[in-house]
Write a structure and sequence with these properties.
The chain has 391 residues and is of the alpha/beta class. The protein is built from 17 helices and eight strands. Helices cover 59% and strands 12% of the residues. β7, α15 and β8 form a beta-alpha-beta unit. The longest helix is centred in the N-terminal third of the chain and has 21 residues, at 104-124. The chain binds flavin-adenine dinucleotide (FAD).
């Protein structure tokens, strides 16, 4: 890795500039628990128990894992965090923590809540909202649309699309761009379909809608190329959100159980290769696209920075965005923003009991994406030591 960038990624003073000594010590405690799989399991069991039995232990959760990974219980609670990030040119992207909805009332509520968030973002000048399609239609219907059991003329699909249209209209009014999350492969075709249709409506002048592409899936780059061919023919901008993918274990397990070929790349190396090739292709096609990457991988961040330079794109180019989750990889976020790159920090918020499933996923992901958790832990330890040595 380039020595200057390596130094910048190791600059813990910059990475934790926003954290008090007390917050750092709490983060140290949290990551030392996440470092031990058996303690993570106990922690998860504890969180589930609180959720199930409605135990009055919200204070403990709030002061530990919740405060580290979430912005607050309401969007208003998150304002202080948003403002402190703004000082470092980091854009917050609040995401209301939900689990999949299953009733029309639930879908309508998610739409309404999202429109409220969009209004808030518009007022604050924050550029992005992330949308989970499982908040707008139930998993079963999304699966039936994806498998062809329900047609694109079905009531399920048309009302799902209509909810998204209302949401996107409000995004346009508020100058907010919409990122459509990728979810499990068996519901993804319906999500791809609606996202591409919406791009055809909203992306005529600039990129408003982004579709997420998961590089752990085989055929991702081919899909991007195919979709971009259509967007070029129909003359609209293609919004690419690129990630590696979050549901690997679940995908592989389901494929094995149901006896079909796993849609997941056979190795991490192959995922990395698909990711790098997709980055390369996206940057080469940037005249008719925008690229938004969600990753905590330092090498990947550097790879994209180099691609931008090779293709004469300035760090500030508004067609390219880097993003990390709140509570993770601050060393990347603060380093890149100090160099002028466009940074977004995804900040989940919501009532504690609603965020528990998210927090459990964070804890588990930190165990399975072990390298990232270890890296975070090392950075926290280094910063605590650096501050100690100042005294
Ligand atoms: C801002 C943001 C938004 C996100 N949005 C989404 C989203 O909409 N949908 C979604 O699915 N995920 C999303 N993710 C999660 C993301 O897909 C990754 O799971 C996570 O970021 C880890 O990948 P990485 O690039 O940070 O790190 P890395 O540590 O480099 O990669 C870890 C990832 O590599 C892949 N991998 C690991 N081992 C193997 C293996 N043996 N074979 C094949 N592949 C392997 C897996 O995808 C794993 O998560 C988002 C992440 C961020 C930061």
């Amino acid at each position: 890795m380039d020595k200057n960038i390596e130094n910048l990624f190791n600059n813990t003073e910059l990475a934790f500039t926003n954290k008090s000594n007390f917050e750092l010590r709490k983060a140290y405690f949290l990551f030392s628990v996440l470092d031990y799989p058996f303690l993570t399991k106990i922690g998860n069991a504890f969180l589930l128990l609180v959720l199930k039995l409605r135990l009055p232990l919200k204070g403990i959760i709030k002061n530990t894992i919740f405060n580290h990974f979430c912005g607050g219980e309401t969007i208003g609670d998150c304002k202080e965090t948003f403002n402190s990030l703004k000082k470092y040119n980091i854009n917050a992207m609040p995401e209301y923590s939900i689990e999949a909805e299953s009733s029309v009332q639930g879908f309508e509520n998610y739409k309404k809540d999202s429109i409220e968030i969009i209004n808030f973002l518009g007022k604050q000048g924050l550029p992005f909202i992330a949308i989970k399609c499982t908040g707008l239609l139930d998993i079963d219907s999304l699966e039936k649309i994806s498998s062809g059991e329900y047609s694109y003329d079905s009531m399920e699909y048309t009302s799902f699309k209509q909810r998204l249209v209302e949401l996107c209209d409000s995004a346009v009014e508020n100058n907010v761009q919409v990122l459509i999350d990728a979810e499990e492969t068996w519901i993804q075709d319906a999500i791809d379909k609606v996202a591409v249709e919406l791009m055809g409506i909203y992306n005529k002048k600039s990129t408003i809608i982004f579709l997420t592409h998961q590089c752990y899936r085989t055929g991702t780059l081919s899909k991007i190329k195919k979709n971009m061919k259509v967007s070029a023919q129909k003359k609209y901008y293609y919004g690419i959100k690129l990630v590696r993918g979050a549901y690997m274990e679940k995908e592989r397990k389901r494929a094995l159980q149901n006896g079909y070929k796993s849609p997941i790349q056979p190795s991490k190396e192959r995922t990395d290769n698909e990711y790098n090739e997709s980055l390369k292709y996206s940057i080469k096609s940037i005249h008719s696209a925008s690229l938004w990457v969600g990753s905590h991988n330092e090498e990947s961040s550097l790879y994209l920075m180099n691609l931008m330079q090779e293709n004469n794109l300035k760090p500030q180019d508004k067609r390219v965005w880097f993003s990390q989750l709140y509570g993770m990889s601050d060393n990347i976020s603060y380093a890149l923003s100090s160099l002028g790159y466009n940074i977004v920090k995804l900040i989940p918020f919501g009532p504690i009991e609603k965020t528990i499933p998210y927090l459990i996923r964070r804890a588990n992901e930190n165990s399975s994406v072990k390298g990232q958790s270890n890296r975070q832990f090392t950075l926290i330890k280094n910063e605590i030591n650096r501050r100690k040595n100042l005294n």
